[in-house]
């Protein structure tokens, strides 16, 4: 989840979003990294450096060693005590899977609109908007996380090598980058998704892909049901929706972690219950990527075995849903009947 609500209803920046991108940066920062990933790495580092007050950690701005020190700090104080074995591998695998989904959806399946629900500090939508100028990208978010990210995107250093275009800032606070990346100020549970998107050029009926990365566990059951119902009304037959569910709620935190950043897990769904749950809203599960399988793909075999043999470890499974009206058999599918989504690792980044 990309924002946290405090008791006074102010939306705080998300430590989870910061931690996810910090993990991704560490994972792709490899020798001989391909040029497209190098630009992505530099942009991600720029955004993360905009998030944190370096001075509070004894660091200085623009210092690569300071950034490494910050990432180590986050690793030590957040990942080690609150997350799970193989977390870095899983974050990288899911980022690569989503990259592949977006690009293959556009190149092979005619996708012309991609919606990211709660983009956090992720750079996929921005980078993809440059690569695919004829596709519309939407990122729906709000609060401090969105404001920090917008400020970073408005001030990208020239040395990163990204061609800057004029940014269109609309009266509804939507920021449009590259003429096709719409950063929309939106609470997608409270606001009418269709109205908000159509006000920003969304074309209902045009082939659409929706991505909710690491989101549902921070919603309650009513919120998840509301999200599925809203997307069922928005999407057309054969449009796809990628989301994740945790199979079990396990909340634990570092004692050093700020109380306002303790983003509690509220909703879980075991793999064998996913098909039944989503078919009630007109969706069929067409692909899966289970936690341990993502670790295996990354070559993180030891941690994959740990998760296979220890069900109390934190896990997060990804599913691709397709809007479908013929759902007679879909609700009875077991997890073993759902094929894995296949994608390749584009460079030497395995564990």
UniProtKB/TrEMBL annotation:
Q: Does the keyword Zinc belong to this entry?
A: no
The entry lists its GO molecular-function terms as: methyltransferase activity
Q: Recite the UniProt keywords alphabetically.
A: Methyltransferase, Transferase
InterPro entries on file:
Ppm1/Ppm2/Tcmp, SAM-dependent_MTases_sf
UniProt xrefs under Pfam families: LCM
GO biological process, alphabetically ordered: methylation
Protein name as annotated: Leucine carboxyl methyltransferase
Name its species. Legionella gratiana
């Amino acid at each position: 989840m990309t924002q946290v609500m405090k008791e006074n209803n102010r939306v705080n920046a998300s430590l989870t979003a910061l931690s996810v991108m910090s993990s991704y940066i560490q994972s792709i920062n490899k020798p001989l990294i391909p040029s497209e990933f190098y630009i992505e790495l530099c942009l991600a580092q720029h955004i993360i450096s905009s998030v944190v007050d370096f001075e509070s950690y004894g660091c200085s701005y623009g210092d690569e060693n300071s950034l490494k020190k910050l990432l180590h700090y986050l690793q030590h104080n957040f990942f080690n005590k609150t997350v799970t074995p193989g977390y870095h591998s899983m974050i990288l695998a899911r980022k690569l899977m989503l990259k592949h989904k977006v690009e293959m959806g556009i190149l092979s399946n005619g996708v012309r609109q991609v919606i990211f629900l709660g983009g956090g500090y992720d750079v996929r939508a921005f980078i993809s908007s440059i690569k695919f100028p004829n596709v519309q990208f939407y990122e729906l978010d709000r609060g401090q996380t969105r404001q920090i990210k917008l400020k970073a995107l408005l001030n990208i250093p020239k040395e990163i090598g990204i061609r800057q275009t004029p940014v269109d800032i609309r009266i509804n606070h939507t920021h449009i980058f590259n003429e096709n990346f719409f950063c929309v100020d939106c609470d997608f549970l409270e606001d009418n998704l269709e109205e908000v998107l159509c006000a920003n050029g969304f074309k209902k009926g045009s082939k659409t892909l929706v991505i909710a990365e690491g989101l549902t566990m921070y919603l309650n059951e009513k919120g998840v049901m509301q999200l599925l119902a809203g997307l069922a009304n928005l999407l057309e037959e054969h449009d796809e929706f990628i989301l994740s569910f945790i199979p079990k709620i396990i909340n634990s935190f570092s004692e050093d972690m700020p109380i306002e950043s303790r983003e509690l897990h509220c909703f879980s769904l075991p793999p064998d219950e996913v098909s039944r749950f989503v078919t009630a809203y007109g969706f069929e599960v067409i692909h899966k990527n289970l936690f341990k399988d993502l670790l295996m793909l990354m070559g993180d075999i030891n941690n994959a075995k740990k998760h296979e043999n220890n069900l109390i470890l934190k896990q997060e499974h990804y599913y691709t849903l397709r809007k479908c009206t013929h759902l007679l058999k879909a609700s009875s599918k077991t997890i073993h009947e759902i094929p894995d989504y296949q994608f390749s690792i584009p460079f030497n980044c395995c564990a």
